[in-house]
Amino acid sequence: MNWLTGSTTEILTALKAEVKLAQEDNQEIEEQVRQIIQQVIQNGDKALKNYSKKFDQVELKDLFISKETIDLGYKRVEDEVIKALEAAKENIVSYHQKQKQHDFMDTEKPGVLRGQLVLPLARVGVYVPGGTAAYPSSVLMNVLPAKIAGVEEIIMVTPPSVDGIPDVILAAAKIAGVDKIFQVGGAQSIAALAYGTETVPKVDKIVGPGNIYVATAKKQVFGTVGIDMIAGPSEIGIIADETANPAYIAADLLSQAEHDTLARAILVTDSNQLAERVEKEIYRQLETLPRKEIAKQAIENHGMIIIASTVAAMFTIMNEIAPEHLEVQLLDPISYLHEIKNAGSIFLGDYASEPVGDYFSGTNHVLPTSGTAKFYSPLGVYDFVKYSQVTYYTKEALAQAKDAIALLARKEGLEAHARAVEYRFK
Amino acid sequence: MNWLTGSTTEILTALKAEVKLAQEDNQEIEEQVRQIIQQVIQNGDKALKNYSKKFDQVELKDLFISKETIDLGYKRVEDEVIKALEAAKENIVSYHQKQKQHDFMDTEKPGVLRGQLVLPLARVGVYVPGGTAAYPSSVLMNVLPAKIAGVEEIIMVTPPSVDGIPDVILAAAKIAGVDKIFQVGGAQSIAALAYGTETVPKVDKIVGPGNIYVATAKKQVFGTVGIDMIAGPSEIGIIADETANPAYIAADLLSQAEHDTLARAILVTDSNQLAERVEKEIYRQLETLPRKEIAKQAIENHGMIIIASTVAAMFTIMNEIAPEHLEVQLLDPISYLHEIKNAGSIFLGDYASEPVGDYFSGTNHVLPTSGTAKFYSPLGVYDFVKYSQVTYYTKEALAQAKDAIALLARKEGLEAHARAVEYRFK
């Protein structure tokens, strides 16, 4: 673990410098992705199949996964896993239903109606990574909020493999209610969703995490379609004082660290003693982890223990980090909620261990990473709707407004705007 | 005007083909913008001043506009313009206040608390274009929703000019409550807001329209900071039948066309007769417009009259266009609201002329353009907040959940996730 000590100002300066260093330039990948997208626009399915052969070493006859294949995969999954996925689904649905928004209408002024409609996106694409990062829980997290929003058609794409799509992924897709699955991955799948091909339909928005090629492709097609966010390495921040249990903290830091070698696990505490115990405990627990090598690299390269001088300083520092996951392991944690300005998902107390949110509680686990919780939100129902404004004016109401409108329009040099209103009174 | 006729399917196919053609590749601009951003990261204010000299032909001593300069500008603006801006502000505030969202909390399950906090962004940057596209109304539209959301600090950037920033822009900034103004424009100003310089503070999100350099820069910094949307050329779509007034329709189409030569003005009607009258009326009204040349080019290159066979077909076609502004000039327009799937701002009836929304009604005029209303929303209070999830579990509640969590974690090969939960019960 790297230790960071000093005054709050010194710590904040060090954290900001670290962020600046992390700005990378991926021009080569960007150029490759640009070419892949152009190929898919021009050659459609043929391009997709060529890239699958090249990148995934799979020769595909069909991109589309049939209902029969999905049902077969589902049946092969152990009953208890299906049950756990169904239980998780129930919690995800009950949480996300509370995010549903309502239209509003405003009739404050005589003869004027103003309103806002909440409308679902028509068609959404969900990217599901393949290989060792194929997570059924993520399928639920990406798809269910879209279903609740009222999206008509949900298209899932996932990389092909010689062994086929993992059964548990097919099962999760069936449980979540995916409408169509295509076996295509990487930047080419993002291009297919953004522009459409003979078999893959064009969608309105693409969500779901992926590797650097997927992330770069999402950024490039952003504007042609909507996207959720650019996901970076995952992180956990834990605020704890001397009353906290070092073993719980170490275990939770490691659950983040095992994700990948770039994952960040950060403890902010005002207790030197706790910090030392946590560090010792991490190395003790590490020994028996199957993903020991990954977790160890993450801890040594990106793990951080920050010693703050006061409770207030702990929160100031954590707000600058703006962690994806934030655990508050203080006594009476709810009394500190108002101190938190930036965090994707907040876990309070000794028993809200972060994996509870990954798998079960129903809050979303697709979260803003790498400090982007300063401006991004967890994936939610709001990501799958858009708003439309509605305005109605009577002639009398427009008569009241017309001089101000014409004046401002002319001030901006837009005479036709002024006349459009004045024509109504000729 | 270009006429588009045929079956609904033929019309939809033609519209989709048009969208595909419009996909451009701006590699050269992207490369220039990339270099500008790198320069600003490396050289800060010095780079900003160099670019101002090069692109705006202005040698700047100070980037910061003092409060005295703003107050002086405000005082030089005619009283009636100030009054009109204040009236517009009042309507914008009263509309956008209805967009404010509340935290929620869910205690359905014993020992479990789940919730969502709505938190304002801390600092936002607003880009305000210079030159002939300097619109005080846009300052209000971009800044006021951020104020209502509770953003602490709003930074405005706008290109320098030898004549200084226009008085009416300074006045609008003062009325809207901008905290700081810097005279810097183009891609360099976006870089400054995204990364911070000696004088320009780093922000969490950048909003506001700009030219292709500004739009490209926003796309490149997206992920480092949040951005609103990528704005393209503006458009209006009007649905009307034989009961509508051709002069009103023509005037409203022209109010869009005068914006710029790429602006799109589209009439969808089931009445051939109305279409002919509108076309004639457009050329009649065009003659006396100060921005005749711009409007004429827009009408001739991008203006469109589409003849639909039924009322339902009019809406199907318009939903495919997904216009920024949509006017419904039918009798009893409210009865058709449910037919509208994609539109930024909807104007109902004869008197809700589109400029009402640009200047006065209080709905936002920063809207999704070029068909992006399929997935983007008008700028609103929701653009200046983010959500944080909150989870609390008692030991008993975690005991209920732990087996499902451990099972799913192990199924995904994430042993440390399973152990983090199980540690609580050792």
Structural notes for this entry:
2 copies of one chain form a homodimer. Chain A is α/β, with parallel strands linked by helices. Chain A folds into 3 domains: 27-227, 3-Layer(aba) Sandwich (Rossmann fold); 232-374, Nitrogenase molybdenum iron protein domain (Rossmann fold); 394-425, no CATH class. Helices cover 46% and strands 17% of the residues of chain A. Chain A has helices spanning 8-21, 27-56, 67-76, 79-96, 136-149, 167-176, 186-195, 212-221, 246-257, 272-286, 292-302, 311-321, 354-359, 395-411, 415-422; strands spanning 2-4, 64-65, 104-106, 112-120, 123-127, 153-158, 180-183, 205-207, 226-227, 235-240, 264-269, 304-307, 325-329, 345-348, 385-393. A 6-stranded parallel sheet of chain A has the order 1-12-11-10-13-14, sandwiched between helices. In chain A, strands 2-7-6-5-8-9 form a 6-stranded mixed sheet, with helices on both faces. The radius of gyration of chain A is 25 Å and the shape is globular. At the A-B interface, helix 2, helix 4, strand 4, helix 9 and strand 14 of A face helix 2, helix 4, strand 4, helix 9 and strand 14 of B. Strand 14 of chain A pairs parallel with strand 15 (385-393) of chain B, so a sheet runs across the interface.
